[in-house]
Design brief:
Strand content: 15-25%
Number of helices: 10
CATH topology: Sulfite Oxidase, Chain A, domain 2
Mean pLDDT: 90
Number of domains: 1
Helix content: 10-25%
Radius of gyration: 19 Å
CATH superfamily: Oxidoreductase, molybdopterin-binding domain
Order of helices and strands: HHHEHHEEHEEHEEHEEEEHEEH
Shape: globular
CATH class: Alpha Beta
Distance between the termini: 25 Å
Bound molecules: ligand MTE
Largest sheet: 8 strands, mixed
Number of strands: 13
Length: 320
């Protein structure tokens, strides 16, 4: 039997109908705004020039090294998922410029002894910034290798002193309906919400992220602050965070509400567990060329040695 991935279609070619319809309506709307039409070409041309934006100095952290070539600035900043700006891969680069990121505060609260609301400048200074090269594996079966800048989320969580009730962490992304053309499409239940178990959030690999390529994060990549959990599918890594909430019960995340049979809470990269509509056994490396072969996906996205202990005794097919 020939399956969809055998004929070279990527899962984004088999978008659910609701999303496809929404995308069409969205494009029709965009067509009414002629000024917006020139922007993608401009954004792409600008990205050709290489890394842009304020510098964000950091020391290199090579605890999880990779020999793989990093993706270009252009790949990383023009091929994005940020559904608040639309479902097309170019939509975030085209529309995210409208997002207001100054001033920006983040609330850290819930099951903590010292709840805090911190300005982004103070958050950046809370721990020394490190550059870490991580693989990002999207649930749509493509991947990139990205040099992120940030520090382990554990620094911030320890700072607010979690109580014994802190079993889960909930990440909430900003919601600015007037500046986010994708929000009116109701593809997800906004604001975008994701979550981790406390031990996952405290793992040193989990990166509170402020930059990419030595620069402050571009808006399409989740400025001014996001989280990156490299052993999980990309959708766990919420962008443009405004709240980090600790609680005793498992949160229901945006993707679980939208399609619980397709997007589980754990979302650990697992080539042995297909998505209900496509295989997760291989991935397409963005930037490797149209005819490059797909590469095998690794359990936990190649970070098994570091994180598999977190799931000892768990059935990873059931807890997908
Ligand atoms: N965060 C928000 N708020 N909204 C989104 O749509 N998409 C997720 C994740 N974080 C998403 C999000 C998905 S599916 C992926 S693959 C990554 O962001 C993509 O990150 P990147 O565009 O920086 O590569």
């Amino acid at each position: 039997m020939r399956r969809i991935w055998d004929i070279g279609l990527s899962p984004s070619d088999i978008t659910p109908e609701s999303v496809w319809r929404a995308r069409r309506r969205f494009m029709q709307g965009a067509a009414l705004a002629p000024l917006a039409l020139g922007v993608p070409a401009l954004a792409r041309a600008a990205a050709d020039a290489g890394p842009m934006g304020p510098l964000l100095p950091a020391t290199k952290d090579s605890r999880w090294p990779t020999v793989e070539a990093v993706n270009t600035w252009k790949d990383i900043t023009t091929y994005n998922n940020f559904y608040e700006f639309g479902t097309g891969k170019g939509d975030p680069a085209e529309y995210a410029g409208r997002m207001q990121i100054k001033p920006w505060t983040v609330q850290i609260d819930g099951a903590v002894r010292k709840p805090l609301t911190l300005d982004i400048d103070d958050l950046r200074k809370l721990a020394p910034l490190q550059e870490r090269v991580y693989r990002l594996r999207c649930v749509e079966a493509w991947s990139m290798v990205i040099p992120w800048t940030g520090y382990s989320l554990s620094h911030l969580l320890s700072h607010v002193e979690p109580t014994g009730d802190a079993k889960y962490v909930v990440f909430t992304s900003v919601l600015q309906p007037k500046n986010m053309p994708g929000v009116s499409e109701r593809i997800l239940d906004w604001p975008y919400t994701e979550g981790l178990r406390m031990d996952e959030a405290m793992h040193p690999l989990t990166l509170l992220t402020f930059g990419v390529y030595g620069r402050e994060l571009p808006k399409q990549n989740g400025a001014p602050m996001r989280v990156i959990i490299p052993w999980k599918y990309g959708f766990k890594s919420g962008k443009s965070l405004v709240r980090i909430h600790l609680q005793s019960t498992p949160p229901e995340t945006s993707w679980m509400r939208a399609a619980p049979q397709e997007y589980g809470f754990y979302a650990n990269v697992n080539p042995a567990v297909p998505h209900p509509r496509w295989s997760q056994a291989t991935e397409r490396r963005i930037g490797s060329g149209l005819f490059a072969s797909r590469i095998p996906t690794q359990p936990f996205n190649g970070y098994a040695e570091a994180v598999s202990g977190l799931y000892q005794g768990m059935d990873l097919r059931r807890n997908f």
